[in-house]
Amino acid sequence: MARTAPRQPGPPAGVIFGCNRSSEEESLNGLFGMSSGHWNLVKEIIPGTPCFLFNFNTKAGLLLDLFNVAALLS
């Protein structure tokens, strides 16, 4: 069984957000979402954090694009 190292404090090095066919367009327009169980990670994102968008509905999965956080909404 693979082990994951404990996450270091501070902003994440990058975050992968998931989408499907029905949410892809909305996500490509910059509106990303994640389940509430990941809120602690999401609230640590700062401007400059690379965010990746992954479509789970494609045959082998598809990493769609790289986005950089420019500003935070409150």
Write up what this structure looks like:
The chain has 74 residues and is α+β, with helices and mostly antiparallel strands. It has one domain. 12% of the residues lie in helices and 24% in strands. It has 2 helices and 3 strands. It has helices spanning 24-28, 39-42, and strands at residues 15-19, 50-55, 62-68. A 3-stranded mixed sheet has the order 1-2-3.
Task: Please outline the helices and strands.
Blueprint: E1 15-19, H1 24-28, H2 39-42, E2 50-55, E3 62-68
Parallel strand pairs: 1-2
Antiparallel strand pairs: 2-3
The tally of strands reads 3
* Poorly predicted segments: none
Output mean pLDDT: 79
Gross morphology: globular
Number of domains: 1
Number of DSSP helical runs = 2
Largest sheet: 3 strands, mixed
Strand order of the largest sheet: 1-2-3
Radius of gyration: 13 Å
Per DSSP, what share of the residues sits in E-state strands of 2 or more residues?
15-25%
Roughly what percent helix? 10-25%
Structural class: alpha+beta
Order of helices and strands: EHHEE
Compute the separation of the termini in Å.
39 Å
Characterize this entry briefly.
The protein is α+β, with helices and mostly antiparallel strands and 74 residues long. It has helices at residues 24-28, 39-42; strands spanning 15-19, 50-55, 62-68.
Features:
74 residues; alpha+beta; three-stranded mixed sheet; 2 helices; globular
